[in-house]
Amino acid sequence: MQTTLTKTQNIYDVKDFNLWYGSNQALKNITLELGEKQVSAIIGPSGCGKSTFIKTLNLMSKLNPSIRMAGELNFRGENLLTSSMDLADLRKTVGMVFQKPNPFPKSIYENVAYGPRIHGIRNKKELDEIVETSLKGAFLWTEVKDRLNKNAMGLSGGQQQRLCIARALATKPDVLLMDEPTSALDPLSTTKIEELITSLRETYSIVIVTHNMQQAARISDETAFFYMGELIEKGSTQHIFSNPDHKRTEDYISGHFG
Ligand SMILES: Nc1ncnc2c1ncn2[C@@H]1O[C@H](COP(=O)(O)OP(=O)(O)O)[C@@H](O)[C@H]1O
Ligand SMILES: [Mg+2]
């Protein structure tokens, strides 16, 4: 559990947010703030809307035409639902890492250089620097520095996931969204990613969905508990895990269901 935070600014301020897949409402009146430069964990049983919620934070949900959204999704004071912010710019600022590592079937170098190239960086020296810095930031550099031109698919699952984090870091984001980033990994790789997240917390605002409550307790500053599309409660991780306000949260964290 992280030490008590000094009150920071909020990066997201979500108000009365609702989301439907067709006629099925998956998120109901979600109101919550997500703090800057801290780790916010989202927990809750399968199907409660965690992935749906985290995917709205960079408007990935806009890719699905059956989705309808209402309410406010304020990112740094700008409502993403009504703003004309360029989606490519948003996704550069708000990076995402998925459950299953999904490197491109290209070299390690090209995986990391991909985003910066798309955003117009052509200079080889500059790209080399970004690749090195990003791989260092993802705790992967020493393991791959002598094989940057080898295919990323040859890396272990844990290394692939750190590569995906390096790829996200390469566009110099402010926010990192992670949807169950360790659920496909072995315990050792999981520990590495947790250490990595703890180090990234200094520089980035991180939102992580996790099935693993011990993980939420270990690495997050704040925790939000979702249940059946609703936010039951959110508070400091210490509070949620030791003395939650709601019985349902207590039942969930003590393993009575989920
Ligand atoms: N692409 C989709 N189309 C229709 N319904 C979906 C889709 N994705 C998720 N849902 C529904 O939305 C609800 C929340 O799902 P999800 O966000 O994946 O939950 P979680 O990540 O907490 O397991 C579920 O009822 C699920 O069936
Ligand atoms: Mg999910």
Automatic annotation (TrEMBL):
Domain ABC transporter: 6-253
One family name in Pfam for this protein: ABC_tran
Keyword annotations: ATP-binding, Nucleotide-binding, Transport
Protein name: Phosphate transport system ATP-binding protein
Domain of life: Bacteria
Organism: Shouchella xiaoxiensis
Listed Gene3D superfamilies: P-loop containing nucleotide triphosphate hydrolases
Lineage start: Bacteria, Bacillati, Bacillota, Bacilli, Bacillales
GO terms assigned for molecular function: ATP binding
NCBIfam families according to UniProt: 3a0107s01c2 (TIGR00972)
